[in-house]
Specification:
mainly alpha, ABC transporter involved in vitamin B12 uptake, BtuC, 0% strand
């Protein structure tokens, strides 16, 4: 079905409604469930600035965590779409260029030294930015040209392997008192995350850039070698995609640790269901990623309550069969 303005609006409205419903569901479900009446009372208390009841306290804690999950999932999914367009590879994901590895190495170093939570966040973001700048320096010529990016991809894989070696070294020498927190951070955990403004600003700016450049991204993804002859500033667009994908990945990893598969399966599912047009694919993937991570986090903290599981485990358990199913559908639909 061809993309029309009405169809696009309906799809985005549906995803926005489902996202809001997932936030309310996450706020209602837990060790102490909240009914519709308690939710209403809690919302009234929060809007009035009176956080004095059990309902309003639980609602604030759960809603803050759900909002962190939504912005993290949206950032990873949007970064996944950008990486797949940049590398012209449907198997690319936000972690393929080693940005996540840099954040992990930075965060674990701070944890190993016994630093506070704000230092851990700052160190994670610094590691991600450092790897991004190093990658940009090593592959700047590749980014400035059109076509595929084998050197960029290979450089990212090598840097990711180096960061992985540093992570393994730090885990092997970490004291037992710090090891559990480090492992949970590596798997992906939202239990200690705080609601902050910066991830929302990064998501808003990246989404605005990508929507403005959506037509150019369509041409770059489908006709990389010919995009420049069609009036697209290929080098500028690819630098933008790389920069914003790295920023979103750094923001998400700093917020919640390494959460796998989300930036891979969500773009695939949205592309399979809605088509390859990035004017619809970009905002749809962002909202679907946020929706999926909110539901996964709700499941992670309720399935064996009061014990909480790392949300990265849930996304991996969902992501592996979902991706295999998508591959099976692609094989069935492709000609022999």
């Amino acid at each position: 079905m061809p993309l029309t303005a009405t169809r696009a609006r309906l799809i985005l409205l549906l995803l926005a409604t489902l996202s809001l419903a997932s936030l309310l569901l996450s706020a209602a479900i837990g060790s102490v469930p909240l009914g519709i009446r308690e939710l209403g009372q809690g919302l009234s208390g929060l809007m009035a600035g009176q956080n004095t009841t059990l309902a309003s306290t639980l609602l604030e804690l759960r809603l803050n965590r759900a909002l962190v999950a939504w912005v993290t999932g949206a950032s990873l999914a949007l970064a996944g779409v950008m990486m797949q367009a940049l590398l012209r590879n449907p198997l690319a994901d936000p972690y393929v260029l080693g940005v996540s590895g840099g954040a992990s190495a930075g965060a674990l170093l701070a944890m190993l030294l016994g630093a506070g939570i704000w230092v851990v966040d700052l160190s994670a973001f610094g590691g991600a930015v450092g790897i991004s700048l190093l990658l940009l320096l090593l592959a700047r010529d590749e980014l400035s040209r059109g076509g595929s990016s084998p050197l960029l991809l290979l450089t990212g894989v090598i840097l990711a392997s180096g960061c992985g070696a540093l992570v393994t070294l730090m885990l092997s020498i970490a004291p037992d008192s710090s090891l559990r927190g480090m492992v949970f951070w590596l798997i992906g955990d939202l239990s200690g995350s705080e609601l902050r403004l910066m991830p929302w600003l990064a998501l808003a700016v990246a989404l605005a850039f990508s929507l403005r450049a959506a037509r150019g991204i369509n041409l770059l993804a489908l006709h990389g070698e010919m995009a420049s002859t069609l009036g697209i500033r290929v080098g500028q667009l690819r630098y933008g995609l790389f920069g914003f994908a790295a920023l979103l990945t750094a923001s998400a990893v700093t917020n919640a640790g390494s959460i796998g598969f989300l930036g891979l399966i969500v773009p695939h599912a949205c592309r399979f269901a809605l088509g390859p047009d990035h004017r619809l694919l970009l905002p749809s993937a962002a909202m679907a990623g946020g929706l999926l991570l909110v539901l996964a986090d709700t499941l992670s903290r309720t399935i064996v309550a009061p014990q909480q599981l790392p949300v990265g485990v849930i996304t991996a358990l969902i992501g592996v069969p979902a991706f295999l199913l998508q591959l099976r559908q692609v094989r069935r639909s492709s000609p022999c």
